[in-house]
TrEMBL record:
SMART domains: HTH_ICLR (SM00346). SUPFAM superfamilies: GAF domain-like (SSF55781), Winged helix' DNA-binding domain (SSF46785). Transmembrane segments: none annotated. GO terms for biological process: negative regulation of DNA-templated transcription. It holds the Pfam family HTH_IclR. It comes from the Bacteria. Residues 65-241 form the IclR-ED domain. Residues 3-64 form the HTH iclR-type domain. This is DNA-binding IclR family transcriptional regulator. One of its GO terms (molecular function) is DNA binding. The keyword Transcription applies.
Length: 251
């Protein structure tokens, strides 16, 4: 089987979504822009292997066998496991401390870190908690959660103009940057991670002295955004491929 055949078979499987669990041959062909003979051959192979079934109304659906694959995924530590190599890669490329943060209630928790080798650094520890919507990471979380943003602005109306501007920048550029949050003279740049349900409840951030982070901002972003894109893709997000600026990045 060629790589092209595998790619097409995976594209067929991707057509089945929670809001469209049943698909006709014509619907799949129209979506993928492939000939009916090609799509039918792929579907028949998937039926033979038990991953797709024919329905009484001449449509196709995923079978329960697909759940066996899902059961093989360690959901509890999936994002941490997927992100770790990219945290290390970004830390090596930027020379700064990199952290993976997660939303839990009203807190954002650092669940993994890679420390830099500089003597002067911002020390971040696993398990460290901070208020949910503060600093670069907090702005990222608000940018991709309209309900949370609305709730935040109701309790912090004095920050409305500043936060709207910051959120708009995240949605356009894919990252947030702040200075002087934890320690005066420190800075951070954070990007969103999306899980298989397209939720932004994790974020990767690069942190250190403002003198280094600000002066190396473009280089940091050049490594941070592709890393965030790749982790989100590995986590099963499909939304991330349609969001600016990630849609313009090379896979």
């Amino acid at each position: 089987m060629s790589i092209r055949s595998i790619e097409r078979a995976l594209s067929v499987l991707d057509c089945f979504e929670p809001d469209r669990p049943s698909q006709s041959l014509s619907e799949i062909c129209s979506r993928l822009k492939l000939p009916k003979t090609t799509v039918f051959r792929i579907l028949q192979a998937l039926v033979d292997y038990g991953y797709v079934i024919n329905t009484a109304d001449l449509k196709f659906e995923l079978s329960l066998k697909v759940l066996r694959l899902a059961d093989s995924v360690r959901i509890d530590s999936d994002m941490v496991r997927l992100a770790r190599p990219y945290l290390e890669e970004i830390a090596e490329a930027t020379g700064e401390t990199v952290a993976l943060s997660w939303i839990n209630g009203d807190d954002r928790i650092i669940v993994d870190t890679v420390e830099c080798k500089h003597q002067l650094q911002l020390v971040l520890k696993r398990g460290e908690r901070n208020p949910r919507y503060t600093a670069a990471t907090g702005i990222v979380f608000l940018a991709y959660d309209p309900e949370a943003l609305e709730a935040y602005l109701k309790t912090h109306p004095e920050n409305a103009e500043t936060m709207h501007s910051a959120v708009a920048e995240v949605l356009e550029k894919g990252y947030a940057a702040t200075t002087d949050f934890r320690v005066k003279g420190s800075a951070g740049i954070a990007a969103p991670l999306f899980d298989m349900k397209d939720r932004c409840i994790y974020s990767i951030g690069v942190y250190g002295p403002a003198s280094r982070i600000v002066s190396n901002r473009d280089a940091i972003i050049a490594h941070l955004l592709p890393g965030a894109l790749k982790v989100s893709q590995l986590a099963g997000s499909r939304l991330v491929n349609r969001l600016p600026p990630f849609a313009a990045l090379k896979p």
